[in-house]
């Protein structure tokens, strides 16, 4: 009773701020597509700490750039260690109250987050397209995906049961209870500016944790829009904090989050190289860590597969987010018997992809996040061609600008090409030929990464064998799109630690406490 009253009091204090937030209600879409007017009610140009919209101590800001046209779409605070410490303290104080709320109260708030995200879906999607470049239809899909984590964890949070343990001694009784770990720091990527926050935040809030979010330097506006949604949903001050910073401050902000004794948990989605640094930095405080790191997904097509299904799956998996997802197919391994048919049909489908500004109707491939990303695709293409691969379609920067790259198909890619060992993170489909199942498995598993993998086969025995033998946390079988709030997003080997989404994701934010009652 007391805890629920505390929460209500906090929410009442908080709701005194509501006038500013009423602007969130859906508004008519303007015709000036891609301008800030499209999402003005959710555009914030300040960071969010302790329930207040704040600028940096020294007033420094940095620009957010639309990768499709190089236009500045916002200037936001370039925060450093001092403001990060403020956010951690705010989250720590808020945790003392938030942890006392009931699972039902937290569930109601998560449910409101879901509802508000869906009500504001188009505005949130336009923010994604403006700062990340992905086509609007895909960004709308990201909001549905992102919101689903609040809906999912609103339910899961109510079902975090402990156990009564059968006793081993007559005079004792034993139980396990689950409790929130505390302040969770979340360092999130630019490729899903919304959903990679909500997958962590939904679980954390439902479990009773508070959060300090450090969004990617390139895509902070989606994080700030989510903070505005959280405010509207009645999330009390300090429970969600967003610390923004530019590339020049990112390593000190990240390090401070990792080293702070007040932060109990670090959750990161991004490159394996950065994940290793964060793990090292977190060692001094023995933090709980969840790491969703890089992949190098094999996509195997066996002779028994339906080639049309495999081609559709390859397009969906390889070209989602313009190839910039950790679960994108990176290497297409195709068996001799269907090799020519698969390559021909894949070429036809790739030639139908439409490159352009993601705000324009009909565009399926936006720009890459920046020029450096396009450089890496270029390097992988040139390397493979220099080693004997055939360039079938694409292969160079698109005429629209430096960050645009033509959807590319390479065939006869040799096993020693860079693309076989490194994640391209771009619109390059390299096809590698194989003869036997054993050869395909050896190639597929020859990587330190272990996130997603895919294969197409209609041979039931082969399906079982291959699903069991692939050394990856996720296996798509006759399916190129596997991401779902209900499925466990898990990388093994050097692709990560821990699980996001599914019934397991909330455990990352819970400690198990064992209580032993004596003298019974
Ligand atoms: C990622 O690329 O990090 C996440 C992809 C997904 O959730 O589908």
Give a verbal description of the structure:
The chain has helices spanning 2-15, 18-21, 81-98, 103-119, 121-132, 136-156, 195-207, 220-233, 247-259, 272-282, 307-319, 336-350, 371-386, 418-421, 437-445, 460-469; strands spanning 47-49, 52-54, 61-65, 72-77, 163-165, 173-180, 183-187, 210-214, 240-242, 263-269, 288-292, 297-301, 329-335, 390-393, 408-411, 428-434, 449-450, 452-456, 474-477, 489-490, 492-493, 496-497, 499-500, 510-517. It has 520 residues and is of the alpha/beta class. It has two domains: 45-293 and 504-513, 3-Layer(aba) Sandwich (Aldehyde Dehydrogenase, Chain A, domain 1), CATH 3.40.605; 297-472, 3-Layer(aba) Sandwich (Aldehyde Dehydrogenase, Chain A, domain 2). It has a seven-stranded mixed β-sheet, sandwiched between helices. A six-stranded mixed β-sheet has the order 9-8-7-10-11-22, sandwiched between helices. Strands 5-6-24 form a three-stranded antiparallel β-sheet, with no helix packed on it. Helix 4 runs antiparallel to helix 6, helix 4 packs antiparallel against helix 7 (195-207) and helix 11 packs across helix 12. Bound molecules: succinic acid. Succinic acid (SIN) binds next to loops.
């Amino acid at each position: 009773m007391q805890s629920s009253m505390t929460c209500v009091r906090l929410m009442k204090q908080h709701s005194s701020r509501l006038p500013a937030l009423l602007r969130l209600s859906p508004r008519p879409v303007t015709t000036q597509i891609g301008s800030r007017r499209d999402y003005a009610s959710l555009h914030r140009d300040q960071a969010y700490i302790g329930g207040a919209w704040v600028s940096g101590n020294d007033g420094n800001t940095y620009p957010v750039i639309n990768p499709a046209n190089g236009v500045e779409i916002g200037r936001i605070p370039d925060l450093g260690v001092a403001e990060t410490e403020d956010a951690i303290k705010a989250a720590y104080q808020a945790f003392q109250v938030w942890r006392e709320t009931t699972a039902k109260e937290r569930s109601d708030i998560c449910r409101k987050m879901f509802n508000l995200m869906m009500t504001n879906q188009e505005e949130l999607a336009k923010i994604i397209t403006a700062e990340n470049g992905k086509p609007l239809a895909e960004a709308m899909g990201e909001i549905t995906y992102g919101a689903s984590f609040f809906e999912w964890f609103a339910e899961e949070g109510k079902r975090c049961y402990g156990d009564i343990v059968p006793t081993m001694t007559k005079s004792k009784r034993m139980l396990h209870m689950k409790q929130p770990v505390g302040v969770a720091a979340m360092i999130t990527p630019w490729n899903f500016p919304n959903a990679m926050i909500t997958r962590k935040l939904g679980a954390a809030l439902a479990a009773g944790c508070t959060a300090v979010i450090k969004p990617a330097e390139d895509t902070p506006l989606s994080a700030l829009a989510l903070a505005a949604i959280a405010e509207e949903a009645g999330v009390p001050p300090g429970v969600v904090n967003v610390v923004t910073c530019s590339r020049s401050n990112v390593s000190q902000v990240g390090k401070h989050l990792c080293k702070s004794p007040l932060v109990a948990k670090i959750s990161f989605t991004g490159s394996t190289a950065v994940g290793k640094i964060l793990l090292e930095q977190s060692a001094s405080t023995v933090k709980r860590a969840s790491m969703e790191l890089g992949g190098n997904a094999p996509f195997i097509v066996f002779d028994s597969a339906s080639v049309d299904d495999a081609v559709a799956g390859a397009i969906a998996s390889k070209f989602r987010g313009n190839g910039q997802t950790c679960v994108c197919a990176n290497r297409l391994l195709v068996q001799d018997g269907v090799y020519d048919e698969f390559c021909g049909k894949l070429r036809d489908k790739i030639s139908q992809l439409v490159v352009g500004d993601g705000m324009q109707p009909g565009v399926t491939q936006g720009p890459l996040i920046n020029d450096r990303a396009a450089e890496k695709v270029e390097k992988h293409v040139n390397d493979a061609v220099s080693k004997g691969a055939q360039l079938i379609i694409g292969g160079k920067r698109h005429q629209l600008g430096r960050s645009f790259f033509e959807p590319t198909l390479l065939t006869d890619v040799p096993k020693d090409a860079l693309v076989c060992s490194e994640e391209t993170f771009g619109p390059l489909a390299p096809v590698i030929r194989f003869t036997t199942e054993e050869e395909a498995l050896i190639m597929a598993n020859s990587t330190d990464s272990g996130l997603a993998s895919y294969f197409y086969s209609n041979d039931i025995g082969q399906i079982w064998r291959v699903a069991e033998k692939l050394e990856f946390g996720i296996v798509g079988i006759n399916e190129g799109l596997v991401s779902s709030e209900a499925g466990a997003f898990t990388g093994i080997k050097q692709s990560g630690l821990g699980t996001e989404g599914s019934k397991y994701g909330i455990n990352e934010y819970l400690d198990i406490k064992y209580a032993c009652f004596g003298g019974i």
